[in-house]
Amino acid sequence: MIYGKHNIDATMGIERDETFRAAEKGRQQGRAQLDPANASASFVADWLWGYDPVRELDEPPVDLRAPTRPDARRAFSAWRTALAYDDLPTWRTQRAGYERFCAREFPPPAGYRWEMIECGGVPVIRVTPPTSGGGPVVLHLHGGAFSFGSARGAIDLAGRMATAVGGTALVVDYRLAPEHPYPAALKDTLAVYQALNAEERVLVTGQDAGGGLAIKAVAPWLTREFLFDLAVSYVQSSDPRTPSLSPYSRT
Asked: Starting at the edge strand that comes first in sequence, how are the strands of the sheet with 113-119 ordered?
């Protein structure tokens, strides 16, 4: 893979940054915890450096990669180009690429007012639809696998949900990993939720990683044991290592 000179220089500068080095050390500690045999290293390298989007464009769509509905085709087309080659070297460049993708594909909707404020000591974006009618506050948690994304990238979705319930939205700009590992994102979420809960009617929503934060913030009954019971009801006689059943599995 060949990168432009500007990108190489920028990446080398990032790698000398002390914040980046400290975060990378934390990432390696996490890898040792989750993958002591380092079995995922070749998979990650193959995906990052071996994926060829130009070749993919020439290949006919197959199986689930051939959505038939117009909206599904639009989503498929958008997400397959979310990151460019120059976005891949580090988590910082990936994060910047994802932010550009969100700004391009999900811009703040026209007619909505939004502003960055603080709630519970945490930065949030308050979104007010054109026809806000005093309904509940939608407390929305953006996605991005805890490492990507931002409150700004979720203004569009949060605003549409606020419109649906006749209220306003707050999108939490929680701290991201690897600079801020667990439980930073959860602490930020709880701080905002607790600051609101005493005075407001609150609907908590989340996408991707934000869905996990939403569950943890407002559903203490959703325990490992309860989830396990739901899982066995679904798996039954199937092999739990089946990739279409367990996305983490590659066997």
From this structure: 113-119, 122-128, 168-172, 137-141, 202-206
